[in-house]
Amino acid sequence: MKSPIRLERRLEQPRWLNWAIPLISLLGALVVGGLVLLATGKNPLDVYWRILDRGFLSERSITGTLRTATPLAFTGLCAAAAFRLGVINIGGEGQLYVGAVGAALVGLWMGGSAPVGITIIVMVVAGMVFGAMYASIVGVLRSQFNTNEIITSLMLNYIAGIILNYLIFNSRSYWRDPRSVGFPSGKPLEERTHWPTYELFGFSVAFGFLLAIAAAVVLWVIYKRSRLGFEIGIIADSPRAARYVGIRTKWTIVAVTAMSGALAGIGGASQVGDFAHYLDAKGLQLNNFGYTGIVVAALARLNPLGAILVAVLLGGLTNAGYSLQGPDFPSGLVGTLQGLILFTAVAGEILTKYRLRSNRAGTKAVAA
Amino acid sequence: MTNSAVRMTGVVKRFPGVVANDGVNFEVLKGEVHALLGENGAGKSTLSNILTGLYRPDEGTIELNGSPVVFGSPKAALDAGIGMVHQHFRLVEPFTVAENVILGNPETPFVIDTGTTAERVAELARRYDMAVDPNAKIWQLSVGEQQRVEILKVLYRGAQVLILDEPTAVLTPIEAEALFRTLRAMTAEGRTVIFISHKLDEVMSVSDRITVLRGGRTVGTVNTRDTSTRELASMMVGRSVEFSRVVRQSPADPGNVVLSLTNVNCEDDRGRQALHEVTVTVGRGEIVGVAGVAGNGQRELAEVIAGMRSSTGGTITVSGNEVPNGRARAAIAGGVAHVPEDRLHTGLAAGHSVEDNMALKNYRTPLLSRFGLLKRNVITSQAGDLVSKYDVKTPDTATPVRLLSGGNVQKVLLAREFSTNPRVLIAASPTRGLDVGAIETVRGRLVEAADSGVGILLISEDLEEIMSLADRIVVMYEGRLVADIPASQATREQLGLLMGGAKMEVTR
């Protein structure tokens, strides 16, 4: 039996597909999710309204959504930056931890004395540098020894987690609070090092989120307008053409991987400076920021500005999930809905490259 | 005839846009080494792929030992006793020799008795004088030994007819001698060997009979002892057709050297020496043709001059200035333009737009970028100018290059290379695969560039192209320049001999 429909490669990819396909995917997810909700005896419209309300509309919901979105924006940018070159850095998770370690280090060290502005800038820079250095292990191994970066970056995630645990739970390190008896915890940073929060349009926005937007704009300019971005595009399209015009491919791989790690590193710094105000070894590892960032990048089709939007969307979805959960609404159902939305969004991606064609026309011709 | 092993009659095989075999007749007798001789693209590979069941012929018949056969798959051909030793080995590197030999053999039992297998493989190897340790892992072996494993694989399956595709291309002369002894041992037992090659000397020394293909047709079959390399060469390249030399507006100035290579050596991707002490000069406005069968170091020659590949010795100068070794940007800045063989994926970034590709060589100049940022509007207008100047047929300059036709792809590449105002142009097979109109255009552009003073190194397998365009012709054979002849004195026959590796007096 021939399948009634087939996929046909699109010769050209019209621009309107870029926004139409995600929208259609989202609608598809809502329909399928609605069926699941009906089957479990819920009113889908009611549930969807609650998601919309708790995630994006009600008072204070935006504040929570942006808070959740901040680290996802950074890890999303981290993945998007490297994927554009064809370097599959899935180490955003570990690079974020290491960035947090760096920011906490300088925050604790400078906390009491230096001017507030300088302290915050140095914390951001420390997050970047630590994240970049950690990621460049991956970049150097890939460019010098052609090591598979998926494996090295994944393994380094585990190592970063172990480093966090060691610093807080298994040693009397500089980061650990000496007063914490019983359950060990990170040393609190001075209040002077806390990053500012801004009240904009009636909700509070963390400094880190604004940084993420700025980073996205910078990244967008790099990819769209800069020589480096041009070279990255050529390497990704045709490594032989890059060699032909003398582009330093190895150098570019290391630089881009470091840049990618720096972005995740600021995400880690923001976790310390914006929210936790200590090195939270447990909390950092709880949320899979780095891995979710890969989803963010994929959904945003590696567009940096898109990554911010998607991060907000996922942030809202996550927060709405927390508030939906209850005795009448099991967490499994929340996960099912979130999974469906992500699944259809990624599945819809294929329609930007291929189009559906009916096989029926051909069969008729044969019959006639 | 009763002792015919293989007889192929009227074989036709068409591919989109090209007839690879156009009524080929080919007969091989039992117990002989039969050479299949021809230039690249003559149809040798297609014919052997048909014989081994990889392709089905569109027309024609195949007889094996006198009875007609139709092979639906390579396995069917192998079962019937026809085995192929490919030029590129198909071996599993971490496995041992014996394991590779029995791999894919339907008689291999589920549980393998390694000891017995190794012994049988070793015995087979001894019988045909092939020194190889059955318990060695493939990755530990030299290329010559790996080839023996390929031969053993085919013999182990009981092949009566062995096809070897350019088997000596990867061998040292001593290894080649050993291979020839093995082939003799096999034919002495009544097996049949089909030996595909374009090297005249080795064909003369190893074969009993020779069939020459040209342009997909059989030119003829001759007894080796009744022929000469000279006759084979003219059969291979064809009788010289009268063709007109291109008329030049301004004559070449060979004394005013713009490109000079002195004793240049380099290695190929696998670390074997690809260029041996290559010395050549190109004068201002001169077109120097590099003739030769593909794979004799032409690609490496082009890449070394363009800075894409590091040399392992010798010097390259452009207009008297030495070009730093292996630095493409320095070569470009020094005035070297390069039209590579692989246009779409080396010379261009196929997924990128026409305008990006037009900027590929000069995007770093102040004209197109400042403070690390590109001036996109200048990039677009530059591309617009070049598109109209070189008459590139494209909807707009934002169209990806991969959507353009072959001729227009080459126009984009030439437009960009000439826009850098080069002193030297390396053009590798610049008209291959193009239609007649595009070929005319490209050749016209090359002559125009030479007239304006660019020194051109024209690397091509197309003798007619070289003879009609070049002022001087050098021949490459096995990484060496074996001749340097003024184009007006060169004959097809002479070039064919040199390309096939025949020794001759070098006329300087």
Description of the structure:
The complex is a heterodimer of chains A (368) and B (508). With 368 residues, chain A is mostly helical. Chain A folds into two domains: 1-42 and 330-368, no CATH class; 60-328, ABC transporter involved in vitamin B12 uptake, BtuC (Orthogonal Bundle). Chain A has 16 helices and four strands. In chain A, strand 2 and strand 3 (203-206) form a beta hairpin. In chain A, helix 1 runs antiparallel to helix 14 (331-348). The longest helix of chain A has 30 residues, at 116-145. The model of chain A is unreliable at 361-368 (pLDDT under 50). Chain B is an alpha/beta fold and 508 residues long. Chain B is 32% helix and 27% strand. Chain B contains 17 helices and 22 strands. In chain B, strand 4 and strand 5 form a beta hairpin. Chain B is globular and about 70 Å long. The chains are: A mainly alpha (368), B alpha/beta (508). At the A-B interface, helix 8 and helix 9 of A face helix 10, helix 11 and strand 18 of B.
Question: Topology, pairings included?
Answer:
The complex is a heterodimer of chains A (368) and B (508).
Chain A: E1 5-9, H1 17-39, H2 44-57, H3 61-83, H4 92-110, H5 116-145, H6 149-169, E2 197-200, E3 203-206, H7 207-225, H8 227-237, H9 239-244, H10 249-276, H11 281-286, H12 289-299, H13 304-324, H14 331-348, H15 350-353, E4 354-358, H16 360-367
Antiparallel strand pairs in A: 1-4, 2-3
Helix pairs in contact in A: 1-2, 1-14, 2-3, 2-13, 3-7, 3-10, 3-12, 3-13, 4-5, 4-6, 4-10, 4-12, 5-6, 5-10, 7-8, 7-10, 7-13, 12-13, 13-14
Chain B: E1 4-15, E2 18-29, E3 33-37, H1 44-51, E4 59-64, E5 67-69, H2 74-79, E6 82-85, H3 97-102, H4 114-127, H5 143-156, E7 161-165, H6 173-188, E8 192-197, H7 200-206, E9 209-214, E10 217-223, H8 229-237, E11 253-267, E12 273-284, E13 287-291, H9 298-305, E14 311-318, E15 321-322, H10 328-333, E16 336-339, H11 343-347, H12 354-358, E17 369-370, E18 373-374, H13 376-389, H14 406-419, E19 424-428, H15 436-451, E20 455-459, H16 463-469, E21 472-477, E22 480-486, H17 492-499
Helix pairs in contact in B: 8-17, 14-15
